[in-house]
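Can anyone check this?
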Amino acid sequence: MNAACTPEFTPNLALWPIGNCAVSALIDEQGSYVWACAPRIDGDPVFSALMDGDAPTHGFWSVRLEGQSRVHQSYLRNTPILRTVLTALDGASVEILDFCPRHAKHDRTYRPIAYARIIRPLSGSPRICMTLRPARHWGAEAAPTTSGSNHIRYRCTDVTLRLTTNCPVSHILGGRTFRLEGEMAFFLGPDESFDQEVRAGVHAMLERTTAYWRDWVRTLSLPLEWQDAVIRAAITLKLCAYEETGAIVAALTTSVPEFPESGRNWDYRYCWIRDAYYTVRALNRLGAADILENYLVYLRNLVDQSKGGHVQPVYGVGLEPGIGERIVESVKGYRGMKPVRVGNQAHEHLQHDVYGQIVLPLVQSFYDLRLLRPGNVDDFHALEKVGERAFAVHDQPDAGLWEFRTIARVHTYSAVMCWAACDRLAKAAEVMRLPERARVWAERAAAIRERIDAEAFVADEGRYGASFGGHELDASLLQLTDLGYLDIDDPRQKATFAAIERDLKRGPYLFRYIEADDFGEPETAFNFCTFWFIEALHLNGRSDEARTLFEEMLARRTPAGLLSEDIAVDTGELWGNYPQTYSLVGIINCAVLLSRPWTSVR
């Protein structure tokens, strides 16, 4: 590789996602693609540099400007289209536009496995060097290439990508520095001929993709305050959806550790029932019915697949139950921190909260007149099988929502979610005019409530514990109010909230729990839990504190306006997989809850 063309890598989470609900990519603060998987979001990475230390030789797509001195990045308004401007010491500058095409075509949504770039000179006489070196076999080697007069083919693990461009391909293959005298377009997509002049074709895609996203944002019902933060969170949540099946992944990455050298490096590129429940719930608050409807299709398929039996907490985006966990040695890890995991052992776990998280989104189909496919009696009876399972396991040990690998308890949050499943089925049965079924489910909900109050309530402190018979706390107890289990004025809620604030809060942030687990004591706060705490502050009458803490969390976002899973209490540095759907859900929920009403300005 030409030394002048060698990109500078400083692995961090200042990353900008682009995507089209089929594929996605993360672009770093130098404008380089450093992470992307194809042909699916949970597939082999074609760009793997994020997971390969600070000097990768392949797995990236970079543009270097000769004499480069500064970089400015931003999204085009209300889109996931990234604009990067590179400026040199002599004032020469170039603009790069990066996006994944998504727009209407032939009466359907065009969302190819493709990445598009437009590079144009802005000032002076810029000289650039482009390096495109996709990886294969989990970053083990650069993808072999063949080329023609206007294209280069890259044979990656599960897909062959073809770059079509009006740039001389020898410049790219040879790592040559050249003067950029006009606009150049790059389409890295399916291994097939590009059926039009590439510059005009990519420009048309840009215009249509821009229009698509801005039209989608216009459908959102936004709070008065913090609109930019909410829009960016909503767009990015949509990028975490795999539209073909309706799945929603927990994050776009694998193995960014929860804190340095912790070994807590997990693969989040799969569909957790829990995470997806919170995602569609937040987007539903904004009126984004499209993602809800598509996810309900995914859930109905899972319900059919389970046949009334065990439901895993997590599946592949194609509904695959088997996502076995393994460690790959072909890359060095994020900042050299191993292990790098592919797959997730959680698919083997018992996590009984999933039954509530299946029922709660699906019952909306019995009420919501917006939906193209309303729920019917057959759907209700199919959902009852999930309720039967919830009732059967509500008092049985599980791994809990924090997915303990060697600890099994009857977790209060799981039991309350099973209660919510039965409670919502009772209410749905009334709407469906099935009074006998309403009575059955109401009785079961009451039975579960009685058991929770007997087993999880810590009488001498007037609060709930995180497990049956246990005194330990975890942040999920803040959800008892949100789920309708406790009223905000209930003394038990107030005592539980006070105990969580006393024991789990570190600085401004909230930990999930503080007891040692399979990997020792946690060292970073969990961003979603801090957002739960913000909601609880507001509901307990401490709105000014809630707003202050919310602003603190917004200040911790990356330049792209996003958050990962975890945050270091002492430095505020972000850790964990990115962008994390949980954390983006927290931004939306808190903004909607805390914002001044529109009636205050009109």
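Reply from J.R.: I decoded it. Residues 100 and 115 are 5 Å apart (CA to CA).
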